[in-house]
Automatic annotation (TrEMBL):
Native organism: Massilia terrae
The Cyclic nucleotide-binding domain, residue ranges: 54-138
Protein name: diguanylate cyclase
One of the Pfam families matching this protein, by short name: cNMP_binding
Entries under CDD domains matching the protein: CAP_ED, GGDEF
Length: 321
């Protein structure tokens, strides 16, 4: 930053400064006249890590980067154009400005030290009003950014808990949620059942019709399962061609009828290849387990897995307890 004179001796007037717009108060004009004007070359840093100062852009432009580290997709660079200012907050709370401020063009800046800002706030009727307006705008902008980040965070969280192929919940979701769902059911003394599902002879299906057709079959089965459940049930891709359904408030008897319905609907589903030609029907095997006193969530999953094994042993395309 190269000092090039005072504001009073420069070609700029108070009308060029947004914070002082509509002010022609002689005391303010006189006080600003003695303030320093500096030149900053394009790419130059505007920083006084130990000082609280107000910078007003007279010509050129500044880029202000938040001191808060953010993700690569969420840049918080604010551009400050001629007439606009930066550093109001640091001046008001007398704390150094930790943002990284860079000139994006050859720029001229007016510097107002924090003591003078406070003096002007007391003397001017225009500055406090403009400052409040500006701060209110900044708070709104910061809130909007926070909301956007929250939404983005939620979006990525959802993404990390869903299987990209089928759109069902994934194993990470199950690891997080099953303990909670089982805990809640136990606490409320309510039933909860699991149905473990495995597509039959899926290796052969893949080998015969190709991996892409296998993917279509998995998606078709996932759609059948998703559409056959209540909104309060959960469908999870457990891994590979294995899926699981979590049925809160569902007794063993009702879980059997749900599994029966799923087994029948998967058997009837038509899977198409990439030429839209129908492929041979797929079937699934289903293992059912229900929460019992003293049964941990891990043991519940193991019980459903063991039941699935029995369904395979019984010839597949069937359900088992
Ligand atoms: N297309 C496709 N195939 C998958 C996917 N995940 C797992 N598989 C396949 O699923 C097949 C599972 O084979 P196995 O575990 O031998 O079981 P299976 O052939 O279904 O036989 P049973 O379960 O005994 O009826 C393997 O060939 C895997 O490659 C996937 O995302 N897409």
């Amino acid at each position: 930053m190269e000092p090039i004179g005072t504001f009073g001796a420069s070609r700029y007037t108070i009308r060029d400064l947004q914070l002082f717009s509509e002010s022609n108060e002689p005391g303010v004009v006189a006080a600003l006249a003695g303030c320093e004007v500096v030149r900053v070359a394009k790419g130059g840093l505007v920083s006084d890590p130990f000082l609280a100062r107000l910078y007003i852009v007279l010509s050129g432009a500044l880029a202000v980067e938040s001191d808060v580290p953010v993700g690569i997709h969420d840049s918080t660079v604010t551009m400050i154009h001629p007439g606009e200012s930066v550093g109001e907050q640091s001046v008001l709370d007398e704390a150094p400005n930790l943002s990284r401020i860079t000139a994006t063009d050859d720029s001229e800046l007016l510097i107002i030290e924090h003591k003078l800002v406070w003096q002007l706030i007391e003397e001017s009727s225009v500055l406090p009003r403009n400052l409040l307006r500006l701060l209110s705008f900044r708070v709104r902008a910061a809130n909007a950014l926070l909301r956007r980040r929250q939404k983005l965070g939620e979006f990525y969280r959802q993404l990390s808990l869903n299987d990209p192929l089928t759109g069902l919940y994934n194993r990470a979701w199950l690891n997080e949620m099953l303990t909670k769902l089982v805990g809640r059911a136990r606490q409320d003394g309510r039933a909860l059942s699991l149905v473990m599902i495995d597509l039959d002879h899926f290796k052969k299906f893949n080998d015969t019709h190709g991996h892409a057709a296998g993917d279509s079959a998995l998606c078709a089965a996932a759609n059948v399962i998703r559409n056959a459940l209540r909104p309060t049930d959960y469908a999870v891709r457990y891994g590979g061609e294995e899926m699981m359904v979590v049925l809160p408030e569902t007794t063993n008897k009702i879980a059997i009828s749900v599994a029966d319905r799923l087994c029948k609907r998967i058997r009837e589903t038509v899977v198409f290849d990439d030429m839209r030609l129908p492929l041979p029907h797929i079937t699934g095997s289903f293992g059912i387990a229900s929460l019992e006193p003293g049964l941990s969530d891990d043991a519940l999953v193991e019980a459903a897995d063991a039941a699935l094994y029995r369904a395979k042993e019984a010839g597949r395309d069937t359900i088992s307890l």
